[in-house]
Write a structure and sequence with these properties.
mainly beta; Methylamine Dehydrogenase, Chain H; Immunoglobulin-like; five-stranded mixed β-sheet; about 0% helix
Length: about 525
């Protein structure tokens, strides 16, 4: 069986017309910052790198300039949390900022910085292959690290049996089972064809039982992917799978034609055989060159990839593409045309589809930028429905082309209200923005959630209760942290059925905090937010 999808595209029918769609301003959230924009002018790092959400709704951010990297925490209202990192020493800036930490001598690119909260409310700050862990207050966690020059630090490349890590793309917290890190190797067989997976204990000590001294490798060999290959983005799913995408040149293709591969592997470095063909899907859009730049996984396991393609083999004109796949790695034929939606910038010599995010209502948001060949980069924001149609709740035509908001490096969905965070900046200052998103937020209270058919879901005494359930219905549930990380999944057999009522036991060993439980009956999801 061929391990790729031959997708027929009628480009002329799919391309959005910039002549007929008027550019709109972003639908900013007025409760955030000033009119939806937190202008972090006190931070001299104007280049956006990474952001993530804490369980309490605060936002962890990283920015950089040509010399330094900066980590900080922003409150849900858009103000810097000056209680974070308050007791750490750092080089004095021209104007020091409470709540922000400067790392000197690190010129970072978008994939070389990472900031994440762990399950126990500590914060991982990574730049390159060097990792610092701080406590929730921002003080260095001296219990973390191994083979490092200072307490609280871990340099992954201090022990690299085969390949050094070029950059960290993502981290996965497996709780008591340890921490996993993934990124491309600095030197592989083809320089960009090897993924390094690193496992440590919860305290940052290399796990000697994992691979070779705590490291395993995924080689994107020519027999499986084609050759050469280029890794673009690696992420961990909430269920602990390694999901990654990149460009491959199959031997049967012209040298100017690159296809897109998407792969899903297990934490032990083996292919997830339930995805694609032996863990891999190769997407062939046609006889053009395609290059993926972003990947995201929705709460229901669906996979979205965005990137750019040339319009012809010899043309320098680019198009954005967004591709949707089922959780098993098959094209969603109901999305766009054969699983793909194309959009063309007004003019483009260089274009990038930098970030993707999805919401609980299966809406997709994509940020990209383009240039006519100069250094005058211009931003675009696209949003699509679950079928690939323009999301008109975002803007007329589902498009915002606005050059005021530059370098939209990363998009992130707040899971409780579906508002979208945008990590960006201009040529001088970093910006953190928030837009209204779907305008259809998940709105459960702390006691119960009422769905359209009056079904109620509530949590009490470490158990979830679902009313009005049919004895023959298929029930599933997922327990998530407030930032959308999956903690536990419940199948049909985990539920206790009663007369019009079903219950499932929740773990009692999770820390006190705010959680989300998503219950699905016959594919229809219901959400409840609760405090444990």
């Amino acid at each position: 069986m061929r391990n790729f999808l031959q997708v027929a595209i009628l480009s002329a029918l799919l391309l959005s017309s910039h002549e007929t769609i008027k550019a709109q301003t972003l639908p900013f959230d007025p409760t955030f910052g000033t009119g939806g924009i937190a202008n972090l002018t006190a931070i001299p790092g104007f280049y956006p790198l990474d952001m993530s959400l804490q369980a309490d709704g605060k936002i962890l951010c990283m920015y950089a300039n040509s010399s330094n990297t900066y980590a900080l925490r922003v409150k849900p209202d858009g103000n810097i949390d000056n209680t974070f990192l308050a007791d750490l020493s750092y080089e004095l800036w021209p104007t020091p900022v409470a709540g922000a930490l400067q790392f000197t001598g690190k010129l970072c690119t978008p994939n070389e910085a990472l900031i994440r909260e762990t399950f126990d409310n500590k914060v991982i700050i990574a730049f390159g292959a060097a990792i610092l862990r701080v406590k929730s207050t921002g003080s260095v966690d001296s219990t973390f690290g191994n083979l490092s020059t200072a307490p609280g630090y871990l340099d992954i490349n201090t022990f690299a049996p085969l390949h050094s890590l070029a950059a960290l793309h993502d981290m996965y917290d497996a709780h008591s089972a340890g921490l996993y890190y993934a990124g491309p190797a600095s030197v592989g067989i083809g320089n960009s064809d090897t993924i390094v997976i690193v496992k440590t204990t919860t305290n940052g000590v290399f796990d000697p039982t994992y691979g070779s001294g705590g490291q395993k490798y995924i080689l994107l060999d020519s027999a499986k992917f084609g050759y050469p290959n280029a890794i673009r983005k690696i992420m961990f799913t909430n269920s602990g799978k390694i999901l990654f995408t990149g460009q491959t040149h199959r031997p049967s293709s012209p040298t100017t034609q690159g296809d897109v591969f998407v792969a899903r592997y297990n934490l032990d470095g083996t292919p997830d055989v339930t995805f694609g063909t032996n863990g891999v899907t190769i997407i062939d859009f046609g006889n053009f060159n395609q290059d993926p730049w972003a990947i995201t996984c929705a709460a229901n396991g669906e996979v979205y990839i965005s990137g750019v393609q040339d319009t012809t083999l010899t043309s320098v004109t680019r198009q954005y593409f967004t591709f949707k796949m089922s959780p098993s790695g098959i094209a969603d034929m109901s999305y766009g045309s054969g699983g793909i939606v194309l959009d063309a910038p007004p003019v483009s010599v260089v274009a990038y589809a930098m970030s993707l995010t999805s919401t609980s209502y299966n809406k997709i948001y994509m940020a990209g930028f383009y240039t006519d060949g100069t250094f005058n980069y211009k931003n675009e924001y696209h949003s699509y429905t679950a079928t690939g149609a323009p999301n008109t709740t975002f803007s007329p035509g589902g498009l915002v082309n606005n050059n005021t908001y530059e370098r939209a490096q990363k998009l992130l969905t707040q899971p409780l209200d579906n508002k979208i965070l945008i990590l960006g900046g201009d040529n001088t200052n970093p910006k953190l923005m928030r837009i209204s998103g779907d305008l259809m937020p998940v709105q459960p209270n702390f006691a119960e959630s009422v769905s359209r058919d009056n079904k109620k879901v509530w949590v009490a005494n470490d158990a979830a209760y679902i009313s009005a359930t049919n004895v023959h219905s298929i029930l599933e549930a997922t327990l998530m942290s407030v930032d959308g990380k999956r903690i536990r999944h419940y199948n049909q057999s985990d539920f206790v059925r009663g007369n019009n009522m079903s219950t499932v036991q929740l773990p009692n060993d999770i820390p006190t905090g705010l959680y989300i439980l998503s219950v699905s009956e016959n594919g229809e999801a219901h959400y409840v937010k609760f405090v444990h």
